[in-house]
Task: inverse folding
């Protein structure tokens, strides 16, 4: 167990120390006084438990492969961008573009997420305990987003594959998205995940998936298309 | 990019001397990575024993002492009485008693060679300069300014030139006490600007953010509430924007339909602070507070 004080280190020093301790087999690293700073714990590629004791800024815990990270506070934009594996758990609210281009692992947001949550997501699971903003799952390609509360407008806009489960209200659907009913197996799996996170509610999740009409563009000019 | 910040002491009653300058500088310093080109603040609400607080940048098109003398003479000729006139470098701060209309006074001042008007306010003033907020604070001692509220900006220029006049905040010429800081780009700027010019407005810069200030000030002048003016701007302005506005006794934000530019807020019973990034809010709030992130098409206002 190692305790680091972010207020005494530059971001580069902090990240280098995390990498060094993780590579040398330290299992648990705590980071005090993050003070909403950006780029903390970026590019950590070894397994370890990383506990950040406070709010963080932009791009925190991005380019991650392996660690289990807990953050007690809020996060700015693009938390966990391009995460490959491991887990991130945030107690409060996340800014825009949380889990952008995420490819694997699990991310849990205890509060609300901002706009474009799971933008261009390519795998893994993003679980949001509260609401999620505008353009949730924009151009998503794989994986699943689970929103216990409401989602904003243009949900699932231009998504290719993957699934957005919504427990609350859906502001509006984005282009080429449609709503389907979840199967019993899916609901049970999600409810079990919620229970493991200490969430006792059992929302009836609907799911948003791609209509796949945008897979094929009609290459003809307007005057070439059939009238009927 | 660009970074914006705002702070207001609500219910501030008669005290009116909160450390607004110091807190704005602190917030801007933590966001200096969002823009090194220029920085600026509006500080509002300090009890002012004069009718008007005039901030002028004296450019080098005429000898500075001549410009200062002509400026003072212009104010006197318009019927004003100068209570104090301080020159710091090439920045002039004048307190004057004046009971006439603002547009003719503003126009007379602008017609003087060397005069670049940064603001005319009853209770507020704009201080802006090229460089970082740290440099600006050293030159202008902004940390010493007190009041009830204010807004600030660090700029990374995208659409218009880098110079002192294109730094934010933008004052809504020729109205008093309406200033704006903006992060974003307006795509219908040129068309809207022409329609205002057709109606007789003169813009002082080629910066789209100046348009927002004039747009809001005209609505306020016509009796529309600050909140409604901000709401209407969501449809009238096109492009990406999160902007903050400071008025005589109010402050507010508007965020575009794309939710493209960041903003976070922290609020207690007495204080509300807004900034592009939470790291800026942490520089003024030491206690652990919930922060909110406004979403698309949102406006909110506060008053002192």
Result:
């Amino acid at each position: 167990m190692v305790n680091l004080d972010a207020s005494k280190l530059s971001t580069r020093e902090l990240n280098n120390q995390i990498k060094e301790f993780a590579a040398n087999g330290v299992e648990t690293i705590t980071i005090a006084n993050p003070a909403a700073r950006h780029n903390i714990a970026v590019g950590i590629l070894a397994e370890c438990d990383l506990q950040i004791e406070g709010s963080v800024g932009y791009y925190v815990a991005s380019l991650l492969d392996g660690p289990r990270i807990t953050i007690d506070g809020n996060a700015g934009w693009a938390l966990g961008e391009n995460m490959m594996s491991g887990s991130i758990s945030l107690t409060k609210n996340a800014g825009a573009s949380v889990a952008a281009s995420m490819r694997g692992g699990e991310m849990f947001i205890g509060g609300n997420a901002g706009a474009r949550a799971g933008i261009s997501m390519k795998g893994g699971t993003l679980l949001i305990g509260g609401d999620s903003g505008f353009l949730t799952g924009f151009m998503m390609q794989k994986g699943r987003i689970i929103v216990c509360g409401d989602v904003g407008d243009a949900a699932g806009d231009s998504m290719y594959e993957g699934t957005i489960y919504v427990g609350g209200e859906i502001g509006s659907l984005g282009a080429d998205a449609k709503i389907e009913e979840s199967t019993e197996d899916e609901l049970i799996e999600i409810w079990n995940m919620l229970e493991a996170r200490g969430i006792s509610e059992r929302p009836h999740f609907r799911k948003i998936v791609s209509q796949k009409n945008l897979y094929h563009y009609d290459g003809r000019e307007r005057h070439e298309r059939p009238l009927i | 990019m660009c970074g914006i910040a705002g702070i207001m002491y609500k219910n501030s009653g008669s005290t009116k001397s909160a450390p607004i300058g110091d807190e704005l500088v602190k917030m801007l310093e933590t966001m200096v990575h969002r823009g090194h080109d220029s920085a600026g603040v509006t500080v509002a609400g300090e009890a002012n024993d004069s009718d008007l607080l005039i901030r002028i940048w004296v450019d080098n098109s005429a000898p500075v002492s001549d410009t200062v003398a002509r400026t003072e003479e212009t104010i006197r000729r318009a019927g004003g009485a100068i209570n104090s006139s301080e020159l710091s470098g090439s920045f002039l701060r004048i307190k004057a008693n004046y009971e006439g209309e603002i547009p003719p006074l503003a126009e007379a001042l602008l017609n003087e060679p060397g005069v670049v008007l940064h603001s005319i306010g009853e209770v507020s003033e704009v201080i802006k300069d090229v460089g970082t907020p740290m440099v600006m604070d050293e030159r202008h001692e902004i940390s010493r300014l007190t009041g009830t509220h204010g807004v600030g900006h660090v700029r990374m220029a995208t659409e218009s030139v880098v110079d002192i006049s294109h730094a934010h905040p933008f004052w809504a010429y020729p109205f008093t006490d309406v200033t704006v800081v903006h992060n974003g780009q307006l795509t219908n700027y040129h068309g809207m600007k022409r329609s205002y010019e057709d109606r007789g407005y003169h813009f002082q810069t080629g910066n789209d953010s100046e348009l927002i200030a004039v747009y809001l000030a005209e609505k306020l002048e016509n009796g529309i509430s600050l909140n409604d003016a901000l709401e209407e701007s969501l449809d009238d302005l096109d492009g990406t924007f999160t902007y903050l506005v400071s008025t005589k006794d109010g402050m507010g934000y508007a965020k575009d339909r794309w939710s493209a530019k960041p903003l976070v807020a922290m609020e207690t019973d007495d204080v509300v602070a807004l900034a592009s990034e939470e790291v800026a809010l942490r520089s003024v709030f030491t206690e652990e507070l919930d922060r909110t992130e406004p979403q698309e098409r949102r406006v909110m206002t506060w008053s002192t």
In short: The longest helix of chain A spans residues 11-23. The two ends of chain A are 70 Å apart (CA to CA). Chain A touches chain B through 25 residues (CB under 8 Å).
